Amino acid sequence: MTKTGFVIANLFRKRTRTILTLLSVTMAFLLFGLLQSVNYLFSAGADALGATRLMTQARVSFTQSLPLSMVPKLESVPGVARVAYSQWFGGIWQDNTPVFVFSVDPARYHDVYPEYVMPEAQWREFARTRTAMVAGRQIADKYGWKVGQHIPISSNIYPQKNGSKAWAFDLVGIFDGKDEDWKKRTNQVLINHDYFDEANQFVKGRTNFYILRLTDADKAQSVIRTVDAMFENSLDETKTQTEKEFNLSFVKQLGDIGLIVRWILFAVFFTLLLVVGNTMAQSVRERIPELAVLKTLGFSDGAVLGFVIAEAFALCALGGLVGLVLASLAGAALEKGTGGQFALHLSGWVWLLGLITIVLMSLAVGLLPGLRAQRLRIVDALAGR
Questions:
Q1: What pLDDT is attached to residue 46?
Q2: Predicted model pTM
Q3: Which of 324, 313, 307 minimizes the C-alpha distance to 364?
Q4: Residue 206: helix, strand or coil by DSSP?
Q5: What integer pLDDT is reported at residue 165 of this predicted model?
Q6: Do the beta carbons of residue 182 and residue 174 sit within 8 Å?
Q7: What is d(CA 181, CA 343) in angstroms, rounded to the nearest whole number?
Q8: How far apart are CA 376 and CA 93, in angstroms?
Q9: How many CB atoms lie within 10 A of CB 156?
Q10: Domain coordinates in residue numbering, the chain
């Protein structure tokens, strides 16, 4: 038998225990991969360099609305080509299924987001029909919506003037993305803002946020400073940021994402060290007579130590690599489910950190049992002392 075969045979001599331990390691590295991807995503932030669109919201919170009278002022800022606006609707489809619904000005939104493609006739119908809505290809395919249908969508925020939160819209178009990246972002519904503004009970002449399309990506920083300075010390102070920063800010409101991730990973790996360490210690205890026989046959103390460390490494590496692969698949599924807004693919940095963690954990759980095996005296071991 080869040395590798000997290590694998020892690892699986107690199959149930080994499989359960491997599942623990796999789940730990699955969480590690996903959480480190989240941490990297949020800590990396978004550089304004190369930004083609900016988002302007109320300085306090995006839930605080801004007046539509700001539109001409924003369009007068040097470097701004076109301004659109969007209002969160809080849509609910059928049995409490959340749907991303925004009320927009059709013409302005079409100009600001040329990446969304739809026949011009449908864009014109969207602007002409007050009760119109258009749906992204992903969500339309998911629910089987067809152009011409009357779609009931409730709002968990805005009632109509009669107090009812049950709304209904006419589906006049289905938009898609210009490429694979933008096709992933077609999981939202757009409704006509004029109709929403007229029919809802509370919000009049206001919107949640503005989308500023720039004439030159290099002017992003200057536009950010100009816009926020323009409304400084007014009743409607603003916070302008890149599109990516704006999307990430939704989740950042939960708290310090990096700190949360670090504490979760600390708890997960501390528990994992105890589990795998106990498995290795118990495995070595059970094999003390066998280890003594190995030394009797001429294996050195270093070789016995190497066998134990190799077994620990095999256990951690097998479970860790499977966990990282599953994290890659789960991240890809999550990215697709969020329409590409949260790209949780495992970068090379996360994989490198995972491999380093596997090596360090192997040493942590295998070193103490290995040192015990190394110091083992043949006479005492065979005598059961």
A1: 45
A2: 0.65
A3: 313
A4: strand
A5: 93
A6: no
A7: 11
A8: 68
A9: 11
A10: 3-45+256-383, 60-236
Distance (Å, rounded) from C-alpha 64 to C-alpha 74?
18
- 217 beta partners: none
**Contact status, residue 324 vs residue 28, Cβ threshold 8 Å:** no
Helices (H), the chain: 3-11, 15-44, 71-75, 106-112, 120-128, 137-143, 180-183, 193-199, 220-230, 243-252, 257-286, 288-296, 301-337, 348-374, 378-383
Tally of CB atoms within 10 A around 61: 11
Position of tokens 């302008």? 240
- The 3-state DSSP class for residue 214 equals strand
- Spatial neighbors of 13 by CB under 8 A, at least 6 apart, are 283
Given its phi and psi angles, is residue 90 left (phi above 0), alpha (psi -120 to 50 degrees) or beta? left
Q: Which of 167, 185, 163 minimizes the C-alpha distance to 175? A: 185
Query: Computed from CA positions of residues 285, 286, 287, 288, in that sequence, does the dihedral angle turn out positive or negative?
Result: positive
**Residue among 360, 331, 322 at smallest CA distance from 23:** 322
> For residue 83, how far is the Cα from the chain centroid?
28
Which helix (H) or strand (E) segment holds residue 168: the answer is strand 166-177
Q: According to the model, what pLDDT value does residue 36 have?
A: 77
| CA–CA distance, 350 with 368 (Å, rounded to integer) | 28
Per-residue pLDDT at 83: 97
Q: 46 vs 33, 250, 338, CA distance in Å?
A: 21, 14, 18
187 contacts 121 by C-beta, under 8 angstroms: no
Spatial CA neighbour of 212 closest among 81, 88, 62, 106: 81
Asked if residues 13 and 279 have their Cβ atoms less than 8 Å apart, the reply is no
Distance (Å, rounded) from C-alpha 128 to C-alpha 340?
A: 30
Q: Over the chain (385 residues), what is each successive 10-residue block's mean pLDDT? A: 69 82 89 77 49 89 90 95 95 90 96 95 96 96 95 94 94 93 88 95 92 91 94 93 75 59 81 85 76 75 81 89 88 66 69 89 86 72 59
Contact 308, 11 (CB under 8 A): no
Measured CA to CA, the distance from residue 172 to residue 178 in angstroms comes to 19
Tokens of 187: 């999981």
**What is the residue whose two structure tokens read 């606006």?**
85
